[in-house]
Structure formats: structure tokens, C-alpha cells
Write a structure and sequence with these properties.
295 residues; alpha+beta; Zincin-like; four-stranded mixed sheet
């Protein structure tokens, strides 16, 4: 667990550095491919990358909560949720995270934030209606483990940066189709090489962003399951919750590719095919349940 916490801290900074370098490189290639843009695109890409990277560190949790449709809740509205979170925070020696609810019938949950002092846990109303107390504590224990292990920082930064890479590549690619020929006949061989390279990078950037998310280890979920079971002292609670989550077929309205890896189970129904599981950021539910039942 302590190795995971240390790794998540330095991996977060490494991911931000890689993002800055990649976007700057993308700007340089497009500057050479479109000479009329001049150095503005290169400098602008660097400034944009730095601002986005550090913005994702401080404000990505608010962005993820917003696009997920989460709203803050009071103890009077959901006392059983508050009691579970407060009790498990005390058991784990953690500050009590802020609590949010997503008005959606599909059961699911995630945690976000940059550290335990600035953490938030969001659950859907469907999850609150479906789970009994022990199952709810199992889910909350899993999410509290993500908070304690600093998974929340790494996962949230990855979500924002990967989404930004995809959006920027799409904008740059459209600039080629609708931005004029830029006197390409006079560009020379080197200019044409950069032109081809720019188009290839714009096409491949979303794929690279997706691979970055897939590079997140499934071991992260296994560790959160194990640590969550330690917090609740009752592994069958989380195992039963995962079994219910796996059997539910209702689509999550606010689910998207950028944040799918943050939820306790993948909210995208199309991922459940056997081929898609090869590229899933979550381990198979059957394997997670089996490990919990063996504890």
C-alpha cells in the first residue's frame, strides 16, 4: 500500500510532464507543417500545456464532478451515506471527504480529488437504493481506499489530460481540412514531411490518449478492493455489491470514455464484450469477487 501511495505521487507529476512535452511537440510539428502560423502555435501549445497540466492538478476534481452531474448533499438528506463515510474515514485515519450524489438510476460510484484533504466521493441514487448497509460500506470502503492510496489524484489527472489531448488533436486536424493549402507546393520536401507527420499525429493522438488510460494498472482496483475490505472488516459486503453492480444493465447517463476508469465498475455497457475486456481498465468482476470471497 505504501509503495502504491509513493508511486501514485511521482506518477502524477510524471504524467503532467509527459503531457506538457507531448503537446509542445505537437505544436512544433504543426508550426513546421503550417509555416503561416509562425511560432505562435508552438509558444501557444507550450503555455496551453503548462496551464492545463497545473489546472488539472488543482481543479480537475471540480470538472469531473460537474460533467458527471454530481451535486453536494447534506446529512439530513442521506444520513446513512454520511454515517458510512464518516465511520470509514475514522477507521482509515482520513479526513471526511465531501459527499456528492448523482441523480441516476444506474448504480455506480467514484472518488476524486488531489489528496485526502481535498477528496470527494460521489455515488448515484441508484446505488443508494440498491445496496444494503453492508454493501454500501463495501463500496465506500473501496472508494476511501482510492483516497488513501492517492489513486484519486492520478486517475483524475489522467482523465483531464487524456481528454485535452483528444480535443486539441481534433481541433488541429480540422484546421488542415478547412484551413487552406498554406502554399504547400512551395513547402519543399522537409515541409511536406512535417505536414504528413502533423496529420498522422493529429489522427493518432486520441489513440495515444486512450492507451495512456489503459496503461493504468488493474492492480490498482484489486488493491482498493483489498484495502476496502480491511476498512470494513467484511469482504462479503463489497463482493455482494460488485455482484449487484455486474448484474445491472441500466446505462449511466453521464458516463463517457474520459472518466470511465474512475468508477468502481466500468459504466460503459459496450465494454462488456469479451474482446473489449482485453482493453478494459477494470479487472473482470468475477475475478474481483473471487478474490474477496477467498479472504
Amino acid at each position: 500500500m505504501y509503495e502504491q501511495i509513493s508511486a501514485n505521487k511521482w506518477k502524477s507529476w510524471l504524467m503532467m510532464l509527459i503531457f506538457i512535452l507531448f503537446i509542445t511537440l505537437l505544436g512544433f510539428v504543426f508550426m513546421r507543417a503550417r509555416p503561416s502560423w509562425g511560432p505562435c502555435i508552438f509558444v501557444g501549445s507550450f503555455v496551453f500545456a503548462v496551464a492545463t497540466a497545473f489546472g488539472s492538478y488543482y481543479w480537475s476534481d471540480r470538472l469531473v464532478l460537474s460533467i458527471s452531474g454530481a451535486r453536494p448533499v447534506s446529512k439530513a438528506e442521506y444520513p446513512h451515506l454520511y454515517n458510512s463515510v464518516e465511520g470509514l474515514a475514522m477507521a482509515g485515519g482520513l479526513p471526511v471527504p465531501k459527499m456528492y450524489v448523482i441523480d441516476d438510476a444506474a448504480p455506480n460510484a467514484f472518488a476524486t480529488g488531489r489528496d485526502p484533504e481535498h477528496a470527494a466521493i460521489a455515488v448515484t441514487t441508484g446505488l443508494l437504493q440498491m445496496m444494503n448497509r453492508q454493501e454500501l460500506e463495501g463500496v465506500i470502503g473501496h472508494e476511501m481506499s482510492h483516497v488513501k492510496n492517492y489513486d484519486i489524484r492520478f486517475m483524475t489527472i489522467v482523465a483531464v489530460l487524456a481528454g485535452t489531448v483528444t480535443l486539441m488533436s481534433q481541433w488541429l486536424l480540422r484546421s488542415f481540412w478547412f484551413g487552406g493549402d498554406d502554399n504547400r507546393r512551395d513547402m519543399g520536401q522537409l515541409g511536406l514531411v512535417f505536414l504528413v507527420l502533423a496529420i498522422v499525429m493529429a489522427i493518432l493522438s486520441p489513440i495515444i490518449a486512450q492507451l495512456i488510460k489503459l496503461a493504468m494498472s488493474r492492480r490498482r482496483e484489486f488493491l482498493a478492493d483489498a484495502n476496502g475490505a480491511m476498512l470494513t472488516r467484511y469482504p462479503p459486503g463489497l463482493a455482494s455489491a460488485l455482484r449487484k453492480l455486474g448484474s445491472d444493465q441500466r446505462p449511466l447517463r453521464h458516463a463517457n470514455q474520459a472518466t470511465a476508469h474512475m468508477w468502481i465498475t466500468n459504466p460503459l455497457l459496450e465494454h462488456r464484450g469479451k474482446l473489449n475486456r482485453l482493453f478494459d481498465t477494470h479487472p473482470p468482476l468475477e475475478e474481483r469477487i473471487a478474490r474477496l470471497e477467498a479472504m
